[in-house]
Amino acid sequence: MNIEDLIQRIETAPGPSDRLDIEIVQAISPRPVPAAFTGSLDSALTLIPPGWSVLRLSHHNDCNGHFTGWLAELYRPDQSVVACPATALIASAPLALCAAALRVRSFQAITQETSTTIDTWRRSPADDAPRALQ
Fold this sequence. Notes:
The chain contains 5 helices and 2 strands, in the order αααββαα.
C-alpha cells in the first residue's frame, strides 16, 4: 500500500470511513488495533508522531458565510519551517489531522531512508575490510 495514495484518498473523502480507518492501521502498525481515526479527533491525534505537535487546525470559509474545508499542519519545535505543509482543504477536522499525521510519517520514512543511504555512501571501503586478529 502506498501511503501517498492513502493520504490522497483521505484528502478527498467526504467523511469518516471504516475502510480508510483499516488502511491507516495497516499503514502504521504491524498489529492492527481498530480505531475510528477518520471520525474522532481524539483518535486522529494519536496518529501524530512523538515530538510533533499541531501547529494549525482551522476551518476555512469562502468569505460568503460558507465553510469550505479543514486544514491541519504539524510541526516540531526544533524546526523553524513546517516540513509537511497542508496541500488541500479536507472535509472534516479528523480527516485533516489523519492526512497531516500520515504526511509527517511519510516524510520521516523518506528522511530516514535518505539518511541511511547517505551514511552507507560515506563509509569508506576500509570500514568493510576484515579486521586483523590481534
